[in-house]
Amino acid sequence: MTQQIRTTLLTGFYELVSQLKGSPEALLISSRINPHQVESLDGYLALDQVAELLNKTASQLNCADFGLRLAYSQGAAALGSLGAAVLQSLTLGEFLNTAIKQLGNAPYNLRVELTKKGKHTHLSFLCIDDLEAQLAEDAPPPQQQSREFLLGVSLVALQHLCGSNFQLESVHLKTERPVHNHYENFFGVPVHFGKETDAFILNSSSLLQPTEKCNPSLRPLLKTYIEELLQKGEASLVEQVQQLIYCLMPLKRCSLQEVANQLGMHKRTLQRRLRDRELVFEDLLDRIRRERAEYYLSGKQPPMSQISDMLGYREQSSFNRACYRWFATTPMRVRRQLMAQIVAREAAQELAEVE
């Protein structure tokens, strides 16, 4: 079962290698990778090829921290094709659970685990262990660059997802000793070597940290997700419109005209095709906004201003008016009512279990 990663994760490879006075094309060809694919950042690459590339590059250019340097240049591209996980998740914990499931499926087949251990939660990266097991008979070179690259990419992704407040507690590495002296500068926390697995150690409370769906740096990610969604062509028109609403709301671009543009049709054509199904675009948008608002208001986070942004309102007052129309009360009172209902249900379930 071949493990793969998106070619977009080699964003910045050409620039970084050139800065280090190396030949990007020669390194790619020697690692069985088509340079044109990396130039266009198209499709997927086998993880063993990327591992070979990173190790050769680090060795030939005498750059022991190449994996971390390349990871640092990723930006929002580090989130790869996890647009669905970003859109579906309100908190860091929800994102991690959704992303882990997605990465475990084809074409990635990457093993990542989230384990709570008291006040701390370990985000463990086991995919390189799988890679080493597959290549064991061929006596591969050490996979340290791959380990550090995937850890670095993951950190950059989480920082873009959660903003400047995101913070690790520490980092665990399987390697017995450091191969350079840039670890703590990159991760910003203590790094411990000779551990059982490569892992990020987080305070468990950080899993409740809200994601930043409206972060401008995520717009290219959502754009890529929209393009992939439409290329599949498997969903019905209504499903495509609904998915586009989810994507475009946080960008404040959720209009009939914009959705029609994404679908490559005139807005009157889209209106007519929805009307043939007894649907109106504005009603679909309003229903999705109400469902999302109810979901967001069912917990203590996120704050009202962020909910307003995620639903695509340009003014907080517009969200307040919509909330009063939906629920006949203010957003704050809706939050209190929903949280009280959740507490009551949990108490009832506990009582039923006791009986």
CATH architecture term of the largest domain? Alpha-Beta Complex
Terminal CA distance reads 48 Å
Rg estimate, integer Å: 23 Å
What is the percent of helical residues? 40-55%
Strand content: 5-15%
The top-level CATH class of the largest domain is Alpha Beta
Counting DSSP H or I runs of 4 or more residues, the number of helices is 18
CATH topology of the largest domain: H-NOX domain
Low-confidence stretches: none
What class would the helix/strand composition place it in?
alpha+beta
* Form type: globular
Number of strands: 7
- Major sheet: 5 strands, mixed
Give the averaged pLDDT, no decimals. 87
Protein name: AraC family transcriptional regulator
Keywords: DNA-binding, Transcription, Transcription regulation
Domain HTH araC/xylS-type: 239-337
InterPro entries: AraC-type_N, Homeodomain-like_sf, HTH_AraC
Task: Explain what this protein looks like in three dimensions.
It comes from Microbulbifer variabilis. Keywords: DNA-binding, Transcription, Transcription regulation. Pfam families: Arabinose_bd (PF12625), HTH_18 (PF12833). InterPro entries: AraC-type_N, Homeodomain-like_sf, HTH_AraC. This is AraC family transcriptional regulator. It is a single chain. This protein has a five-stranded mixed beta sheet with strand order 3-4-7-5-6. With 355 residues, it is of the alpha+beta class. The chain folds into two domains: 205 residues, Alpha-Beta Complex (H-NOX domain); 110 residues, Arc Repressor Mutant, subunit A. The radius of gyration is 23 Å and the shape is globular. α11 runs antiparallel to α12. The termini are far apart. The protein is 55% helix and 8% strand. It is built from 18 helices and seven strands.
